[in-house]
Known about the structure:
This protein is an alpha/beta fold and 476 residues long. The protein contains 14 helices and 21 strands. It has a domain at 14-56 and 153-430: 3-Layer(aba) Sandwich (Alkaline Phosphatase, subunit A), CATH 3.40.720. It has helices spanning 35-38, 52-56, 108-115, 151-163, 178-187, 241-247, 267-271, 279-282, 285-290, 297-304, 330-342, 401-412, 420-423, 461-471, and strands at residues 4-6, 41-47, 67-69, 84-86, 88-90, 117-118, 121-122, 147-149, 165-167, 170-171, 191-193, 196-198, 217-221, 225-232, 252-255, 291-292, 310-313, 350-356, 382-385, 393-395, 399-400. The strands form 6 sheets. It has an 8-stranded mixed beta sheet, sandwiched between helices. The protein has a 5-stranded antiparallel beta sheet with strand order 1-14-13-12-11, with no helix packed on it. A two-stranded antiparallel ribbon has the order 3-4. The radius of gyration is 21 Å and the shape is globular.
Amino acid sequence: MTRLRSLILLISLVGVGGCTSSTGTPSPLPTASSASAAIQHIVVLVQENRSFNTMFAGFPGANTALKGKCKLARSAPWCPKSQMIRLRPVPLESSGKKNLGIDIDHSHHAFEVECDPKGGVCQMDGFDLINFGESGQGTAAMTYPYAYVERSETKPYWDFARQYTLSDNMFFTETASSFIAHQILLSGTVQLSNGEWVTDQPGAVPWGCDAVPGDNAPTLLRNGFESFSPGVFPCFKWGTMADLLDAKQVSWLFYVDQCCVNPPYDFSGGAWNGYRAIHKIFYGPDYKKNISSPNTNIFSDITGGTLPSVSWVIPSLYDSDHPASGCNGGPWWVTKVVNAIGTSKYWSNTAIIVLWDDWGGWYDPAAPQIINPSTLGFRVPMVVISPYAKAGNVSHSEYEFGSILKLMEQTFGLASLGTTDKSAPSMEDVFNFSQTPITFKSEPLPKPRACAKQVTNPGSQDGMKELIEHDGGIPE
């Protein structure tokens, strides 16, 4: 039976404007970039599910907040009369009785509730009205999303941000979770037609062309409804950066763990491999040639002198910063990769982009522009590490994920996909190609604490149940 859910966001907010074409037909070359003379390698490290404020609250010079707005309501007695909730520190692994290790809702519906749009502007006061669980079917999250990660755990990220460039205005292009985030990072779009977008994820891993038949992803419709049935099978024919890179014979690899062999260790390979959902790649020669598993292959490629011009690097679940993973290995993983590049011959001509794929449901004070029903989403952190990144810089320029694709296109003289890569702002202002190149200084490698609890799928109801039982119930 078709299930339709009313959208709070759209009906009174948005006109008929939509995203650019998703056909992948190459457009004229983007404006030539000065990056092409200095940058020969771009490495995108994709971490998981954190808002900008959750990782960088209090960072000097950045737009952050240590209190967040809530909305008075009978259904939310925890919102004080001041309508402000003080943010509290939580461990990165999100475990322990006082900081329950459960994923919080970060579906499109959760975005609408947290955004609380009025007059076409997000009020950013509904973060206490969402639920636990990926689909929001758990108990009320109450004040849980009003948090920032303990600074002792985010220290490597802050150190890199202090040395290089931190963006405090990078917005996730879309308004749902990781499945579409990993499409945007390859294609710049999840638009199926004029007025229909892919939104929340399929129900089971793998997410891609080898998904269980009928396990479709929901779609978001311009008329103000989210269609869960029939939805769309997660195997798409839109263009990707692979098409543009291959056309110019620019080398690329997608470093990710394998899927569907030894879960939960290969969860990331089934869920976060965006090329798994691209028909041409999954069924073509690029899949065997350019999907490099396990993700640790990047280290041998660096030492062996075979790092490609463009790399996407996808962590394991336990090194991903994903809430409810029970592990805090993300800073260790990112530091290890950055140090490997920084101490190699590649440092002198590489740009490393550390990015979190979606906001994970966590509080953020910065309201995104409402461009259409699917765009923009909330802020996520981005740190640009390069000898040519502006040193000690906080960039306030507004970006979205298409900006990263545009940087690739400008650097390597590629065509444009004609999607959000075409309309997104250029990232050139995070670089200074006239400066004396920054000498790399290795970051001390943090030692992750032992995993508190490991679950196959932190967004699932079974995973939530495991963690509730492990940690002793919902916190007060």
